[in-house]
Fold this protein.
Amino acid sequence: MLNKGRSEADLFSFLETKKEEDLDYRFILSSMCTLPHPVAVRAHSMFIETNLGDPGLFPGTASLEQLLIERLGSLFHLSTAGGYSTSGGTESNIQALRLAKEHKKKIKSPNIVVPESAHFSFKKACDILCLEMRTVPLDKTLKMDAHKAAEIIDKNTVCLVGIAGTTEYGAVDPIPELAKIASEQDLFFHVDAAFGGMVIPFLDRPLPFDFALPGVTSIAVDPHKMGLSVIPSGCLLVRDPQMLSLLNIDTPYLSVKQEYTLSGTRPGAPAVSALAVLDYLGNEGMRAVVSGCMKNTWRLIDGMETFGVERAITPVLNVATFICNKAPDRWKVSWTRRDHLRIICMPHVHREQIEEFLVDIGGMYV
Ligand code: PLP
């Protein structure tokens, strides 16, 4: 702690220097986050002081959070879905598993069944909740094998998890088959659509992954990924709003008597930012964003293949992966656990960057 405060000019010049150490989004091809939309930034600063952890003090903000849930519920074919604004996919996944565990409270040694491709947040969740995590192998297209999932489920399984847009490959698991298995076995089925939830509904041919499938119990979706909101902005949606009360704990000194959320103090600003982007862009605007990202993904794949660098899988979302082991230094790319080059064509990755990247990569491969 400084003994005497520093001047604002000095302070901000120090902060500026530190900010300059961060990478410029222009060169970031590895992230599922992106530059927030200007309306998200404006809404964020407008609601900066709001706390959804004490909603009686901020009823306007709380109603905007519920409007966000309503918008997402409608997008996912169930306008009556319940839910709340989380800090992102990790929290949504933890909370979904808490719900699943509570739902089958009598099971003494609970396990969950997830694909091998599940995000590492499930490991954290299992650790915290003392759940056994059973992983299901993937098929050749890197999707969960539904038959193997059915074999692995047993009487102690409290949750089946499917991924709609895997972190590494953007693969979409066979959600309809999994939903059917879950329905038949009366199992809680959580769909992790943290990435895909803001992409799939806006594709020309959307894949089934949401509440339109009767077996889907809950969905995680992150507006701070393809929803162009500010970080941190996630949402957990549940088919039955009453189910959330399974997590209720007493909150004696707040404006509400009980809460089911994980965090106590919760920022209203990211929830409002997420809503602002959805309402500003609407369905048409979001379709345009997603269409641009998909076009760039395909341009990248075509360009790479002209240099003999083959795709690892044919993507359904804006995640391009390649069988190759080197990439130009000035670009921030990532590598999957199977050693494939991974590039996410997020909204901040424009056509010019793809062309520049291809020129650089051409210099390495030709
Ligand atoms: N689920 C999926 C499919 C993801 O891709 C991610 C992050 O990339 C997460 C969950 C975790 O989200 P967060 O980092 O917002 O907690």
Summary: The CA atoms of residues 77 and 212 lie 5 Å apart. The pocket of pyridoxal-5'-phosphate is lined by residues 32, 88-90, 93, 119, 121, 163, 165, 167, 192, 194-195, 222, 234 (CB under 6 Å).
